[in-house]
Amino acid sequence: MTEDWHFYEPVNGHGLAHDPLNAIVAPRPIGWIGSRSRAGVNNLAPYSFFNLFNYRPPLIGFSSQGWKDSVANIAETKVFTWNLATMDLAEPMNASAAMVEAEVDEFALAGLAVAEGRVVAAPRVAASPVSFECRLTQLIRLETKEGCELDQWLVIGEAVGVHIATAMIDDGIYQTARARPILRGGGPVDYFEVTEGARFEMRRPD
Fold first, then answer.
1. What is the pTM (predicted TM-score) of this model?
2. Is the distance from CB of 74 to CB of 81 less than 8 angstroms?
3. Around Cβ 35, how many Cβ atoms within 10 Å?
């Protein structure tokens, strides 16, 4: 059977209306990162390059295109929070993505109440049903295959405190869809919502 393919080498461009990579590797969980500068200014920003990398200890990471305020704050203070972005918080999450000066508090900009960390000095989103308090473990500048440094920064942190709204837990099991988490899709505007109707079960082979 013959199939048609669109093939491209990224170094030569994709030849499409929009770069397909972030639509292919999607949907992706959102790294909604809370941090605070040494001067005491709160910062909140969503990152679509985000994931969990290890169970024990729990390591999460996000990648920032450019040395943004989140990265600068974390490099200074060594702490940050991750906050679950949900359907109810979609608009404030989007508002917190605004490109503003470092002196602007995105919590206030997005109309979000701040909750303080219990074990790290970093702000978290009070309305989010799940938040992680994290300590920086690695800050890595990404490179090309030739070893050329990119203005892309991978921040990895160990979750040292986890907040979960008890309404999200049944019989000791966290109910993923109940919070209605949102995920980043491709293109400039696409997001997806996790719903119970989309869930299916499949066990690993023995």
1. 0.95
2. no
3. 25
**CA–CA distance, 124 with 107 (Å, rounded to integer):** 9
Which value, to the nearest 10 degrees, does the dihedral of the CA atoms of residues 93, 95, 98, 101 take? -100
Q: Which residues of 126-153 are buried (b: 16+ CB within 10 A; e: fewer)?
A: eebbbbbbbbbeeeeeeeeeeeeeeebb
Dihedral pair phi/psi, residue 64, rounded to 5°: -115, 130
Encoded tokens for 47 = 């990152």
pLDDT in tens, 95-121: 999 999 999 999 999 999 999 999 999
In which residue are the tokens 């200014």 written? 41
With 0-12 / 13-18 / 19 or more C-beta atoms within 10 angstroms meaning exposed / middle / buried, residue 41 is middle
Name every residue whose Cβ is closer than 8 Å to that of residue 204 and which is 6 or more positions away in sequence: none
- Residue appearing with tokens 């938040």: 131
Cα separation, 78 vs 165, whole angstroms: 26
Contacts 24+ apart (CB under 8 A), 164-167: 164/129, 164/130, 165/129, 165/130, 167/129
pLDDT digits (tens, 9 = 90+) for 126-185: 999 999 999 999 999 999 999 999 999 999 999 999 999 999 999 999 999 999 999 999
- Rg of the chain over all Cα atoms, to the nearest angstrom: 18
**What is the distance between the alpha carbons of residues 12 and 87, in angstroms, rounded to a whole number?**
38
